[in-house]
Design goal:
It catalyses: Hydrolysis of proteins in presence of ATP. By secondary structure, the protein is of the alpha/beta class. The protein has 27 helices and 26 strands.
């Protein structure tokens, strides 16, 4: 309890009930007749204060014999103080600051309640004071010593010295002086238990007298120290001369003492034998170097790194699978494959004592929780968490370190972060592994091969340290948006786990469980909770975001919370429930529209599905025919693969024109133009062949293509449909765009069946093996 103000207050004490609430104090004692602040923590204590304040009841404040967190009746002293709450200064759910006034001494007879707070049967301890010359002398003596103590430097409230002259009650004076005595709790408790004011004044007088004597002695010492300052300066110069003499005589100086301490640290670091030999050789070399030489700090820094590396320091893994599963479920919704893999790792670790850390790679669109998963894994394992971003790294030395021959050489980021963590088995996240660069300074991706290979990283050698370090205990986790740009050999060393994105229903649940509570807390709305209706969240998902992840959804929710915070501060009527119409009021007009659902069926325009590094998306393939002669025009920033798909589609249509009821000579007098809208965005990939083929068949047969049917798949010249990747991302994109039916290659059936049933129930899927299988599904029969 920190005392910030003490004053006197006379008022009627009231009648003490037989049973009152008891508040425990760990580190102080409260005396009667005084007003002072009290800071209490704990839901039970907060409830006790609130109940007593509402009913204007007495509270008993009793000191604890032992500083325990969960005291029992035996841990309390028998004598305490009955107080009244004067004012509640500050209150939260588990903390309250109040101003209390001590009223009378009480004795606790027995405890009648322990939960949610203590109640006890008490009796008032009455004090009897008789006027006498002895008491008058004691009162004046205590006042004099109190003032003298203040003059000698004792820290006291400003108004206390002038107020103490007005105190003529020996009991109040003794209690007041006791508060400011530097005594342990048990000694102050003895003063509280002294009922006779005269006896209490004698003890207080004794303590004050002792305190004043100590302060006088300390003051004399300070004066002597001030006089000796000039002597100290003279001794400094003498020591410098002595140091020079010792150097001439070859005797040990402070520099040698420092090197000896360094040797002790090397031995305490518990390095492997070969590393300790290197460190001792470097130390012997350091002994021969002049401290003023430029080589000295280089060698010294190298030894400091060797000492600070956690060679044998490890955190103990939490191998309780149920607890780890609970933590993972608390932090993330869904992601069952990732959670299962971590629990498998724990299970094997529990059965096998020495286990090499796996190299996991979380691959998926932005905002799907890849980085935050690493933090959850570290928390569930009870390990330290390290994260570095590899995006834009082009220098190999960032991974392996610089040779010590270079000026300003340092260890690589791997060893630096392990030193910083102070543990040899952290969870190490390498973010954005697909965005590593390469130039004349080397190839960082190739440098990572040794780090991420379980067979090689047992003896990883940093160029700066030039000694091997065992990285096999580190749990490495990498993240990427796409794997196409990742070094092939590096990809082979990692166990890839895909995070495809979230459906609308999953986003709804995540918003309620994680995003909304987080934004309410970050925007200061804990005392003004906001309720988001399900339809409002769906509206934000469909009309204000278009993503596989959750970042924009969280931003829009945060935007709404900030606008509500503005209403509160401005004193306007506060919005407490977010309905769909409120969303549009706060976020403005909708940003995205369902292009498929909003358009009509047309000839030569077919809906396709594409996969991008930000998730799935829909594309439209448009085909038109003009007068010309055997010419194919392709526009829309198409890559080489999509251009070849268009040529293959045209070749298939020409070779099967008769069977498809198309004029076999159509190409002789025609120019065919295939365009994919959003021409400024580069597009490529091996899954648009079937879409282009259907657009050509629709154009040349005059049959309208159904806009609510979306296709994905690659074609061959013989009409076979080849399997594709990114099935879940494409299905989610189709559902977001309002597509009713998707057409998938038959070989992707297993991929589609792995998708959650609640997602599959929202869309119809048609499997095809040949191009002809899709014609009647996509194209409408001519009337």
């Amino acid at each position: 309890m920190r005392k910030t103000k003490v004053s006197f207050h006379k008022r009627g004490d009231g009648t003490l009930p037989e049973i009152i609430t008891i508040i425990p104090l760990k580190d102080d004692v409260v005396f009667p007749h005084l007003i002072l602040p009290l800071d209490l923590t704990g839901e039970g204590l907060v409830k006790a204060i609130n109940d007593a304040t509402i009913k204007n009841e007495f509270i008993g404040v009793v000191a604890l014999k032992y500083g325990v967190d969960s005291p029992k009746p035996n841990d309390f002293y028998e004598v305490g103080t009955a107080v009244k709450v004067v004012q509640v200064l500050e209150a939260t759910s588990d903390n309250v600051k109040v101003l209390i006034e001590g009223v009378m001494r009480i004795k606790v007879m027995d405890y009648v309640q322990t939960e949610p707070y203590y109640k006890a049967r008490v009796e008032e301890i009455r004090e009897f004071t008789e006027k006498s010359e002895t008491i008058d002398v004691l009162v004046q003596s205590v006042i004099t010593l109190f003032k003298l103590s203040a003059m000698l430097g004792k820290t006291l409230p400003k108004d206390l010295i002038s107020m103490i002259d007005t105190v003529n009650n020996p009991s109040i004076l003794a209690d007041l002086a006791a508060i400011y005595l530097e005594l342990p709790v048990n000694e102050k408790q003895k003063l509280l238990e002294m009922i006779d004011p005269q006896k209490r004044l004698r003890v207080v007088f004794h303590y004050l007298n002792k305190e004043v004597q100590l302060k006088e002695v300390r003051g004399k010492i300070d004066e002597e120290v001030a006089k000796e300052m000039s002597k100290t300066q003279r001794e400094y110069f003498l020591r410098e001369q002595l140091r020079a003499i010792q150097k001439e005589l070859g005797q040990e100086d402070s520099h040698m003492e420092e090197l000896n301490k360094l040797e002790d640290k090397i031995k305490e670091a518990k390095m492997p034998r070969e590393v300790e030999d290197v460190a001792m050789k470097e130390l012997e070399r350091l002994r021969d170097i002049n401290p003023a030489s430029a080589e000295y700090p280089v060698s010294r820094t190298y030894l400091d790194y060797l000492i600070n590396i956690p060679w044998n320091k490890k955190t103990i893994d939490n191998l309780e699978i149920n607890q780890a599963e609970r933590i993972l479920n608390e932090d993330h919704y869904g992601l069952e494959k990732v959670k299962a893999r971590i629990l498998e790792f724990l299970a094997v670790h529990k059965l096998k004592e020495k286990l090499k850390g796996p190299i996991l790679c979380f691959c998926g669109p932005p905002g799907t929780g890849k980085t935050s998963l690493g933090k959850s894994i570290a928390r569930s394992l009870g390990r330290k968490f390290i994260r570095i971003s590899l995006g834009g790294i082009r220098d190999e030395a960032e991974i392996r370190g610089h040779r010590r021959t270079y000026v300003g050489a340092l260890p690589g980021r791997i060893m630096q972060e392990i030193c910083r963590a102070g543990s040899s088995n952290p969870v190490f996240m390498l973010d954005e592994i697909d965005k590593i660069g390469a130039d004349f300074r080397g190839d960082p991706a190739s440098a990572l091969l040794e780090v991420l290979d379980p067979e090689q990283n047992v003896s990883f050698v940093d160029h700066y340290l030039d000694v091997s370090f065992d990285l096999s205990h580190v749990l490495f986790i990498t993240t990427a948006n796409i794997l196409d740009t990742v070094h092939t050999a590096l990809r082979d060393r990692m166990e890839v786990i895909y995070l495809p994105g979230y459906s609308e229903d999953e986003k709804l649940k995540i918003a309620h469980q994680f995003l909304i509570p987080k934004q309410i807390k970050e925007n200061g709305l804990e005392n003004h909770p906001v309720i988001f209706q399900d339809q409002s969240i769906y509206k934000i998902i469909r009309e204000y975001t278009r993503e596989a992840g959750l970042r924009n959804l969280e931003r829009e929710i945060g935007s709404i919370c900030r606008k509500i915070a503005k209403e509160i501060v401005a004193g306007k009527q506060v919005t407490k429930e977010i309905a769909p119409e409120i969303v549009e009021k706060f976020l403005g007009p909708r940003k995205y529209f369902y292009q498929v659902a909003d358009e009509e069926d047309r000839v030569g325009v077919v809906t396709g599905l594409a996969w991008t590094e930000t998730g799935g998306d829909i594309i439209f393939v448009e085909a038109s025919r003009m007068k010309g002669e055997k010419e194919l025009t392709l526009t829309g920033q198409l890559g080489d693969v999509m251009q070849e798909s268009a040529i293959a589609a045209l070749s298939y249509v020409r070779s099967n024109a008769k069977r498809l009821a198309i004029d076999e000579n159509f190409y002789d007098t025609s120019e065919i133009h295939i365009h994919v809208p959003s021409g400024a965005i580069p597009k490529d990939g091996p899954s648009a062949g079937i879409t282009m083929c259907m657009a050509l068949i629709s154009l040349l047969t005059g049959r309208h293509a159904r806009r609510e049917v979306a296709l994905t798949g690659e074609v061959t010249l013989t009409g076979n449909v080849l399997p594709i990747g990114g099935v879940k991302e494409k299905v989610l994109a189709a559902i977001r765009a309002g597509v009713k039916t998707i057409v998938l290659p038959l070989k992707n059936k297993d991929d589609y069946e792995e998708i959650d049933k609640e997602i599959r129930d929202k869309i119809r899927c048609v499997y095809i093996q040949k191009i002809d299988d899709a014609i009647d599904t996509v194209l409408i029969q001519r009337q």
